[in-house]
Amino acid sequence: MQKKVLALHDLAGLGRSSLVPIIAVLSAMGHQCVPVPTACYSSHLALSGWQGCDLTGQMRPALAQYAGLGLRFDAAYAGFLSSAEQIGIVAEAAGLADLLVIDPVLGDNGRLYSSVTPELCAQMARLCSQADVMTPNVTEAAVLLGLVPEDVPRGEEQALVWARRLWERFGASVVLTGLALREGELAVSCCENGTAQLVRHARIGAYYPGTGDIFAAVLTGALLSGRGLLPAARQAADFVRACIAATEAEGIDRLQGVQFERQLRRLWESA
Q1: How many CB atoms lie within 10 A of CB 187?
Q2: What average pLDDT does this structure show over 179-185?
Q3: CB–CB of 6/224 below 8 Å?
């Protein structure tokens, strides 16, 4: 039967981030995506002049409807959450799903986002303790481990240690992204049941918003398709790299996000 994914994320109209690529990715992988927007924005927040509204008040009624209909989701997948209240709502939503995937969106490139407070970090840590799978980047992993946001793993062994420490602390399978361990290469450190391994891929020197959302969506879709954690992480990394490479070849403004649309056939063909 077709799998159902409850996706709790913000919706940004312009810039190919959040629910826009998430819905497309999960659909291309053959799954039904049921979005519950946490907020609605005209664009992602790196583009100037954005407008938005918070949708916290709509989240519980939507989930109550699904519970009243007797719906059961194969996975709940949550990303950007703007408040401790939203984190609490996601924790409640976990009761409707068999698998909880948390992308603990707190910061990137050694800095926390401006909306992130100490209370939000503490609540996010508690949510990660409920998760079955968590997908922090290096900055978020540092914060969740009680380190400074600027800290990074020094070498491959430390990258594996960080993933194991996250698994020990939160009890979730870990996919630690954005590891720059070798020249010209990026890596992902995965830990499942205490065993940590690396997934490596060639690095393209370009930053695009929304690629973390795409990575976590492909990972979730691959897990629901029966792939193990390491193969799922490899598929997610390969897909994001393909999107970046194709977009770089077009020479478009990077703040418009990656042109994932033409790459979706890769996911459909592998579903």
Answers
A1: 22
A2: 90
A3: no
pLDDT 10s digits, 30-47: 999 999 999 999 999 999
Tell me: the pLDDT tens digits for 198-224?
999 888 888 899 999 999 999 999 999
Mean pLDDT on 145-174: 97
In the sheet with 195-202, reading across from the earlier edge strand, the strands are 52-54, 32-43, 4-14, 75-78, 100-102, 133-134, 173-182, 185-192, 195-202
Task: List Cα–Cα distances, 24 to 54, 119, 122, 199, 220, in angstroms.
Answer: 23, 33, 32, 25, 13
Which residues neighbour 176 within 8 Å (Cβ) at sequence distance 6 or greater? 135, 136, 137, 138, 141, 159, 162, 163, 166, 188, 189, 190, 191
What are the distances in angstroms from CA 271 to CA 30, 34, 228, 243, 251?
A: 7, 19, 14, 18, 30
Q: Would the pTM count as exceeding 0.90?
A: yes
- Residue 244 pairs in a beta bridge with none
Joined together, the tokens standing for residue 197 give 């391994």
